[in-house]
Amino acid sequence: MSDFTSNFWSLYVAAITIAGVVGCGLLLWLTSRKKIESAADNTTGHVWDEDLTEMNNPMPRWWMWLFVLTLVFGAGYLIAYPGLGTYKGQLGWTQLDEYRAEVNKAQTELEPIYARFASMKTEELAGDPAAMAIGDRLFMNNCAQCHGSDARGSKGFPNLTDSDWLHGGTADNIHQTIKDGRVGVMPPMAAAVGSSEDVRNVAHYVLSLSGSPHDSLKASLGKSKFMACAACHGMDGKGNTALGAPNLTDDIWLHGWGEAAIVNIINNGKTNEMPAQKDKLTDAQINVLTAYVWGLSNKAAAAR
């Protein structure tokens, strides 16, 4: 109900709910008072399939009282709990409080499991089978939706198993990324580069940096125009982890490869977001998850 912009909808929902409960009670009262004339043999006179006769027996008392108890329970529930528009109920119960209570309970129960990992460094955790088993579950539950179950990512979602890191691949960098999240912004650069032909030339120059197939003439013309991009990607195109600017020389393409893909990004820009996990995971869980992700691209070091 919090997304409603006026009290009308709150009152509308409350009125419909109350009308439903009152209506059921009124229906029960009216039907209990209505008498159906019956024949001498206690039938209503309705016959189906030649010999199926409708009897005129009253509804069992226990059935009627069960209906009454249901109405009483419904009224009591609506008084105690939310159900009438924006009315919060006498008990003040909310789904958010219930969720937080369950999360706190789970974290309390899990504390002993994570206690022995608290004093271990990232490299040590990455080589601990028990810690990595937990890290794998944390990754599957919180990261695999974007980066894939094998952590190799997909278009728009980084591969976590290689050595290419937008914001740095050290344990501290990874920990900060998981905890606080990241927002990467590539602004539209067409106006700064020049004409549409200049944009295509820059695209070919970018392709040349990684040795990808390109038009050498267009690349040579685009080199000077690349100055507009050098502020973030560097004069050599090797990127800047402080800004999250990708390395353009390693032939790893996060948002697609080729002239068309690069021209599209130069013209329209791109925004990527890695959501912060600090409100979902505890510090201990983030430490274990950091070690797991770090170990994906440092398997030899983790094994040692």
Automatic annotation (TrEMBL):
GO annotation terms (biological process): oxidative phosphorylation; proton transmembrane transport
Which SUPFAM superfamilies did the record assign?
Answer: Cytochrome c
Its pathway is: Energy metabolism; oxidative phosphorylation
So which cofactors does this thing need?
heme c
What does the entry list as the binding residues for heme c 1? Answer: 143, 146-147, 274
Where is it localised?
Cell inner membrane
Q: Which Gene3D superfamilies match?
A: 6.10.280.130, Cytochrome c-like domain
**Keywords carried by this UniProt record:** Cell inner membrane, Cell membrane, Electron transport, Heme, Hydrogen ion transport, Ion transport, Iron, Membrane, Metal-binding, Oxidoreductase, Repeat, Respiratory chain, Transmembrane, Transmembrane helix, Transport
The cofactor binding remark recorded in the entry reads: Binds 2 heme C groups per subunit.
Please give the start and end residues of each transmembrane region: 12-30, 62-81
Identify the GO cellular component terms for this protein: plasma membrane
Which stretches make up the Cytochrome c domain? 130-210, 217-297
What the entry lists under InterPro entries is as follows:
CcoP_N, CcoP_N_sf, Cyt_c-like_dom, Cyt_c-like_dom_sf, Cyt_C_IC, Cyt_c_oxidase_cbb3_su3, Cytochrome_c_Oxidase_Subunit
Which one of the record's GO molecular function terms can you name? Answer: electron transfer activity
Q: What does the entry list as the binding residues for heme c 2?
A: 186, 229, 232-233
Highest taxon of source: Bacteria
Per the record, the similarity remark reads:
Belongs to the CcoP / FixP family.
Quaternary structure? Component of the cbb3-type cytochrome c oxidase.
Task: State what this protein does.
Answer: C-type cytochrome. Part of the cbb3-type cytochrome c oxidase complex.
Instruction: Indicate what this protein is called per its UniProt record.
Output: Cbb3-type cytochrome c oxidase subunit
Query: What gene is this protein translated from?
Result: ccoP
